[in-house]
Amino acid sequence: MKNACTAIVVAAGSARRMGGIDKAMTEVGGVPMLLRAVRALAKSERISAITVVTREDLLDRVTAMCAAEPKFIGAVTGGSSRAESVLCGLKAVQTPLVAIHDGARPLVTVPVIDAAVEAAERCGAAAPAIAVHDTIKIAKNGVVEQTPDRSALFAVQTPQVFDTFAIHSALQAALKQNLPLTDDCSAAEYAGLQVRLTPGSEENLKITVPSDLILAEAILQRRDGL
Question: Which domain, by its residues, includes 66?
C-alpha cells in the first residue's frame, strides 16, 4: 500500500466576500459545498481518512452532516488564521502524509488529488496548479512597476500535500515569526522545502464570490450531461 494520507478540509473562514452567505453550507448542485468537497476527496483511494476544520458555531452541524461519510473521522474547531486552523486539524492526523484542501473547492477530481499525493510521496511537498492565462502586472499606488514573465506564473490550488511532520514544523515556525502566509505551500517554502507542482484543473475553482456559484453549477451540469 502507498503511504497513507489524511485529508484536512479547511472551512473555518468567515466568507466575507460571499456577501453574508454561509459558504460551507451553501449548496452546489443540491449538495452543501463542504460535503461535496469531503465526498470528492473520499473518492481517491490514496486518501485514507478525512477530518474537517470549521467554525465553532458550525461544529455540530458539520459533524452531523459528514457523519455517514466512510472516511470521515471527525471535525474540529479552527483558529483565528488559516495556519492555526490547519494546525488544529493536524492534531488528528496519524499518517505520514497530509492533504490540506479548501472546503470552498468542491469540484476537485480524483486525478488532481492523486497526482499531488503521488508527487508528495516522492518529494515531501506538492500542490496542483494551472498556468496563468492573463498578463499580470506588479503595481504600486496604481502605477505599473513590472510585468513578470507569464510563462513562469502558476495559480496554485488544493489539495496541497505534505510530509505531515514537515508541514507541522513549518506552520509552527511561520506562526512564531508572524510570516505572511497566503497558503500552506508558503509555510513550506519559508521552511526551505521544495514544492512540486502537479497538474491542476480549471474546474477546481475556489468559490470566493457569489458569481463563482453560477460557474460551479454550470460545471456540474456539464459533468452530468445536462
Answer: 5-220
